[in-house]
């Protein structure tokens, strides 16, 4: 192949490659969402979140995560955190509420949400954040891996950072319904097909071990469920006597076949709507 042809190929490849992304104006917002194709960080002017005082039954996890996040925001050592456990018990709500509380206490901290399917792009995102003077809480909601899913390898770039190490100004929080992120049958398949089964299984299980904090969330009991609803009522000025609230809330729970913080909020939204109370 002649030199002119090689030059044309090189030029074509350069045109196909995305241009390096310019850093956004991080001073313009406290929250961002990472998108790919093309790479960009979009600011989120108003984050959808619940006040930290309205998260009932997660006191220990709340205090631990808030302390860890404050340490990080102040430039002190802090751990990556995995919030795992029952659905609808406020894992992602706690992350967003803690971020708001840190800002309220006067510590500057940016939160960047990363979708699980965009994990392969995380190295590019970390390179962008590494060059900033700000501190970032990188957040991935509902993190888990299924059969033949190789995204878990990209996760190591966040937790370990490769040869450069994780950027000093980035901490990673994730929520998951599974403590070990991998389904049991996937781990068993790795054990059966690997040359060295124990090493293959260890690679999967060790993902969770790379989080310094494991915070467990468990199903709430009936008293906690009712306390959540009463807390929402008091915060938003919705008036209902205890007897009526208890009867309605338990009936609502029965129709859903579950009891959780999410179900409590869904009942409260219905109640507020019936009473004509806007939730701003």
Outline the structure in words.
- This protein has 280 residues and is an alpha/beta fold.
- Helix 2 crosses helix 3 (91-104).
- It folds into two domains: 26-217, Rossmann fold; 222-274.
- The protein contains ten helices and seven strands.
- It is elongated.
- A seven-stranded mixed sheet has the order 2-1-4-5-6-3-7.
Report mean pLDDT, rounded to a whole number.
83
Number of helices, where a helix is a run of at least 4 consecutive DSSP H or I residues = 10
Percentage beta strand: 5-15%
- Annotated CATH topology of the largest domain: Rossmann fold
Strand order of the largest sheet: 2-1-4-5-6-3-7
What's the helix and strand layout?
Elements: H1 3-16, E1 31-35, E2 40-43, H2 59-73, E3 81-85, H3 91-104, E4 110-113, H4 122-130, E5 136-140, H5 151-159, E6 170-176, H6 184-193, H7 197-209, E7 213-217, H8 222-236, H9 242-256, H10 261-274
Parallel strand pairs: 1-4, 3-6, 3-7, 4-5, 5-6
Antiparallel strand pairs: 1-2
Helix pairs in contact: 2-3, 6-7, 8-9, 8-10
Q: Gist?
A:
Helix content is 46%, strand content 12%. The protein is of the alpha/beta class.
Features:
280 residues, alpha/beta, Rossmann fold, 2 domains, 7-stranded mixed beta sheet, elongated
């Amino acid at each position: 192949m002649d030199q002119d042809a090689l030059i044309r190929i090189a030029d074509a490849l350069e045109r196909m490659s995305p241009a390096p992304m310019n850093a956004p104006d991080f001073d313009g917002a406290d929250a961002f969402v990472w998108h790919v194709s093309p790479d960009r960080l979009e600011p989120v002017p108003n984050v959808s979140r619940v006040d930290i005082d309205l998260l009932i039954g997660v006191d220990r996890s709340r205090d631990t995560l808030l302390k860890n996040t404050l340490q990080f925001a102040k430039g002190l050592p802090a751990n990556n955190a995995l919030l795992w456990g029952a659905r609808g018990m406020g894992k992602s709500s706690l992350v967003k509420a803690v971020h708001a509380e840190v800002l309220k206490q006067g510590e500057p901290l940016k939160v960047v949400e990363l979708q699980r399917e965009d994990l392969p792009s995380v190295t590019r995102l970390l390179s962008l954040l590494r060059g900033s003077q700000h501190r970032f809480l990188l957040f991935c909601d509902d993190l888990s891996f299924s059969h033949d899913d190789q995204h878990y390898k990209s996760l190591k770039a966040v937790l370990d950072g490769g040869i450069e190490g994780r950027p000093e100004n980035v901490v990673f929080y994730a929520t998951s319904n599974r403590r070990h992120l991998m389904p049991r049958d996937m781990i068993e398949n790795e054990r059966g097909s690997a040359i060295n089964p124990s090493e293959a299984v260890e690679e999967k299980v060790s993902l969770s071990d790379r989080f310094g904090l494991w915070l467990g969330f468990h199903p709430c009991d009936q008293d906690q469920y009712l306390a959540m609803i009463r807390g929402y009522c008091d915060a938003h000025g919705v008036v209902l006597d205890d007897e009526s609230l208890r009867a309605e809330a338990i009936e609502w729970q029965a129709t859903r076949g579950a009891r959780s913080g999410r179900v409590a909020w869904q009942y409260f939204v219905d109640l507020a709507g019936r009473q004509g109370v806007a939730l701003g």
